[in-house]
Amino acid sequence: MELIQQFKKIIGDQYVLTGDDMTPFLCEWRDRYRGRAAMVLCPENTQEVAQIMVLASQEGVKIVPQGGNTGLVGGQIPFDAENEAVISLSRLNKVGKIDPDGNVLHVEAGVTLEEVQNRALEVDRLFPLSLASQGSCQIGGNLASNAGGVNVLAYGNMRDLCLGLEVVLADGRIWNGLRALKKDNTGYDLRDLFIGSEGTLGIITAAVLKIFPNPRERATAYVGLNSLEQIAALYTLAMEKAGGQLTAFEIMPRRGLEFVLRHMSGARDPLAAPHEWYALLEISSLTGGGAGDKAMADLLEQGFERGIVEDAALPSSLEQRAAIWALRERMSGAQKPEGGSIKHDISVPINSIPSFIEEANAAVGELVTGCRPVPFGHFGDGNIHYNISQPKGMDKQDFLDRWEEVSKLVHGLVMQFNGSISAEHGIGHMKREMLQEAKDPVELDLMRSIKQAIDPKGILNPGKLL
Fold first, then answer.
1. What is the enclosing helix (H) or strand (E) of 444?
2. In which order are the strands placed within the sheet that holds 16-17?
3. Residue 173 contacts residue 454 (beta carbons within 8 Å)
4. pLDDT of 405-457, one tens digit each?
5. Sheet holding 95-99, edge to edge
6. Pairing relation of β-strands 36-41 and 79-88?
7. Residues ≥6 apart with Cβ < 8 Å to 192
8. Nearest to 66 by CA among 30, 96, 83, 91
9. Quick one: which of 4, 42, 90, 210 is 20 to 30 A from 236 by CA?
10. Cα angle 121, 126, 129; round to 5
């Protein structure tokens, strides 16, 4: 109780949660992880975060940083009711200087991704990170997990979209790295060290982000195809014809679309006939004047001529474009009403995607008879969300009890294809043991050495990543 009072002196009584008001911070939206903690701390600024870490370091309190609590691998969930506290960054929600000429934006860690997008638009700029959870996920969490999304193909992930950071270390020191420089060749790149570290090395409290000229035109196409080989051929053609203007290339299987049509209100199939696979393409143009539409029309025309494209729909309004994108964005949520879903966030070399999916579908089908693979995602950067829905009629828990067995099979195939067991969701709690097999031993040893050097007491996000 005395320790709780000390934390209350730092941030105020109402911002130290110890009762039922902790519940929203202790479970994630899929209900896979339900955690426990001694308290939830809600600081307002970097100085309060630093004071919390000084006290936590002195008293040996372990700290779990948390943003919007949208993570999918349990990295933001505490598990020790006696000696762990959550630090919620939600009150660090100020947007600072926006420089449209320099194409940079200063922001605190608790600002939502959607707010950053909107603030960039106010000065006719684009912040390109786009996720289904953008209304609730926060920039600090996006940085800590090196988030990706649908625009990585053209703009890169969060590591590519960040110029500088402010980070509170385990002992309460503050690293001020908020530099808006594209070139800074002065030694070790600490920024990239903290991005993707999942809160195990420090707590990101602010960032300098890149913003971009806002495209004047976006041409979108929803394409029906009958094989993964056709998808691969279409991607190659799209890169040849559109190059850097190709800002999205997403794929969806027929089964996944049927889930969306069945469970998501207002969803409809844009094409008259069903197809085995669908690709969602977007070409962005900075000049406007129909340049994007012409590039997309030329691309599809050649696709038809080469026998790659079976059918295509081109939205004629913003509403139609939003409806088509909703089919992709709802793909994950639409699996929940179908029962248990064993999910994987993997990447393989782009030219290996068709072979990987075909081999994985066959292997999991043999392991769990009647299971329903739903592989979808970011073909253009090699990131596939390889999800598997339970067989019809099977007990949900019986299926989910096989999670480790199924994942071991899938991740084993990923390794055979020289891929990664985590493309954009991170390692967190879920994949910590898998990482020991997926990483080179020397790489793991270097990671442990870095952790020991920066957080020698092991109080930052314990039990995650390593």
1. helix 441-454
2. 16-17, 36-41, 79-88, 62-66
3. no
4. 999 999 999 999 999 999 888 899 889 998 998 899 999 999 999 999 999 99
5. 95-99, 104-108, 203-210, 162-168, 174-177
6. parallel
7. 159
8. 91
9. 210
10. 120
